[in-house]
Amino acid sequence: xxxxxxxxxxxxxxxxxxxxxxxxTRTHSQLCKAWDKLWIAMNTCINGEEPDPVVRTVxxxxxxxxxxxxxxxxxxxxxxxxxxxGWIDHTIEELLDAAIxxxxxxxxx
Length: 109
Hints:
The protein is built from four helices and no strands. The chain has 109 residues and is mainly alpha-helical.
């Protein structure tokens, strides 16, 4: 990745972080727009050139998961039928599942 591309992604990440933490821009639609800009920047700059194989794998998995979600639910994450509280509940459920998976893996150590 070229320095200018990395700088562009950093700028988009800064904007996304500001959107997340700003009391003014916490609507789901605003966060989705900020995320979309970051995602487009990442995909535009990566094109298989990401030198970190772990980052490249995460990007590929996110793209695959997004496609699966669109196929399964017929919409993108910009859907408006879920309230902010609903999105928080979904996140809590996902994190609880992750905690269970980690606890299970810990038993193998």
